[in-house]
Amino acid sequence: VSGSRSSKTFKPKKNIPEGSHQYELLKHAEATLGSGNLRQAVMLPEGEDLNEWIAVNTVDFFNQINMLYGTITEFCTEVSCPVMSAGPRYEYHWADGTNIKKPIKCSAPKYIDYLMTWVQDQLDDEKKKIGVPFPKNFMSVAKTILKRLFRVYAHIYHQHFDSVMRLQEEAHLNTSFKHFIFFVQEFNLIDRRELAPLQELIEKLGSKDR
């Protein structure tokens, strides 16, 4: 059962077409990440379009989180995680405003499946195709995507960190999350209140880097 379910949640990797400007931006991002200075790596490269930079990085974070969650799907089940939570104080209910207008309570795997499918639909949206001007609401859509992707990190850290440790994935998870947080902080993309479930970790990651 877990096999069929995990393959459902594990979305196909989003690829940015080679030769496109966004592909060049992604290569630039990967090169600066390799330098190990994450604060510098998230900054908008000189002369680049902010929307495009945010789009490229959002696709990259979607792929990273998809992969990280994919490693622990067998531990995140209807039984182990009957609600989507980040510790005892934070519970998330799903609504996408179109198919599900009123927030519903669901298990973590169900919530993450809804979330990843929704993000994929946003990224696939015709309006966001390469070379087409960004729609006026692009920034608000990007903020919603990133806010929701944060919840997957929060769930993994609060409910599955022991599994991550057993798989020896913690360095990978921490680097990915640190990159994500520096990015959303650089461009003020997620409200501080939304980050509350991992506030202590965020402060720790930030202080190490000053």
Automatic annotation (TrEMBL):
Keywords, comma-separated and alphabetical: Kinase, Metal-binding, Transferase, Zinc
Xref: Pfam families: Mob1_phocein
Transmembrane portions of the chain: none
Keyword Chloroplast: no
Amino-acid positions noted as binding Zn(2+) in the UniProt annotation, renumbered to this chain: C76, C81, H155, H160
SMART domains given in the database record: Mob1_phocein (SM01388)
Molecular function via GO: kinase activity
InterPro entries linked: MOB_kinase_act_fam (IPR005301), MOB_kinase_act_sf (IPR036703)
Organism name: Balearica regulorum gibbericeps (East African grey crowned-crane)
Keyword Metal-binding: yes
Domain of life of the organism encoding this protein: Eukaryota
Protein name: MOB kinase activator 1A
